[in-house]
Amino acid sequence: MNRYPVHVEGRLDTPLSRGLWLVKWLLALPHYLLLIPLWSAFALLTVVAFVAILVTGRYPRAVFDFNVGVLRWTWRVAYYSYGALGTDRYPPFTLGPDPGYPAAFDVDYPERLSRGLVLVKWWLLALPHYLLVALFTSGALLIGDRYAGFWQFNLGGLIGVLVLIAAVALLFTGRYPRGIFDIVLGMNRWVLRVAAYAALMTDVYPPFRLEVGGLEPSPEGAPPAESPHAPAHRWTSGAVAAVACGSVLVSVGLAFAGIGAATLTLDRDADGFVGAAAVPVRTSTYAITTGEVRLTAPGVRVLRDFVGQVRVEADSAGPPVFVGIAPAAAADRYLKDVAHDQLARFGQGAHYARHEGSQPPAPPLGQHFWAALSQDSALTWEAAPGDWTLVIMNADASPGVTADLRVAASVPALGGVIVGSLTAFVVLALGGTGLILLGLRLSAPPRAQTPRPVTTGS
């Protein structure tokens, strides 16, 4: 049986502290914070590796060493914390190997990779393994009932459950059950092999077998030989920081690009208004109101600059619908003794608060307090300071109001959002790419010095 090219090992330290595991979440916090930008870089550089493999059939060695280092760092932190609790030794802050640390991870560098497999192995071929990895690493417990509500506790899958059992045993007995440790290491080994395969580091399909125990079986009794054709790169702290920061900048730039693209695709009507989907509102009473909405002078300036004019449309298949915006006090006086519903929650599945009463004293169109009222079932309003209420009624003041309500805005700041987002994307993408290239350059091995010929005088 050939040894799989992804190597995951762990040595159970003894003795282990009975209670240190209770605070390891806090002790490992610096590592968690550093792994966030490192995993951002890992994802971005895996895309770079995908393109390189597709074009050349080779995984760039500098990128390979970096990504292996991120997985190695992650494994050491998981082994120290709640992925295994196998050691109390604090993980080193480095991507490189540490022979003295009880958790080790490595991947044999492949000289050639299939250009065809790179298109399908990370999503299609690895799918059966993803299902098993999900079983190993994710899962939650729901406690409660449908009346009192549910509380969800993330147990971390089978690995998390077994580590929790081992932690309780450690707390009370001072010993880590060896059988549990062997199974936990086997499942972690499976997970990391799949991670390396999905990250395009090998074409060898992960085996469907649980190799338990801290050390991998080595039938030939010797570790795999290192490739002599690709010298290891030197991922110093400066090179790592440049790549991590550059990847974060590129990721933020891509987020801005997404905002700009989404803004460009917003649905505008013929008048340039941007609106949401229509929401059905209905009541058997005489009116529907939104309740009091208070706008202050600073808030109004922001609304006018960014939201612009607001348009409210109410389409009805029944009687003509009236829509009006009025000072809240005037609307309250008009509807004081009128049966109406107040919107408690707007949107799909709207909720109402019922106010009992009788019919209106007069149709809404005859009132003079409206700040804006509908023309052909639609009104346009520009925000102003004050307390305001939106009222929807049948134009003839009859009961039973049914309409599809749609709110839209002119959004004058939309053009600036698009330009700003795309500008930010270009600046951040260029700056991030420059930092990544700088990090890759800093990680390159030193060139061999060619000795100068020695000349002697005659």
From TrEMBL:
Transmembrane segments annotated in the record for this chain: 32-55, 122-144, 150-172, 239-264, 413-440
Key words of the record: Membrane, Transmembrane, Transmembrane helix
Pfam family, one: DUF4389
The protein's name in its UniProt record: DUF4389 domain-containing protein
InterPro entries documented for this protein: DUF4389
Keyword ATP-binding part of the UniProt annotation: no
Naturally occurring in which organism (per UniProt): Acrocarpospora pleiomorpha
Domain of life of the source: Bacteria
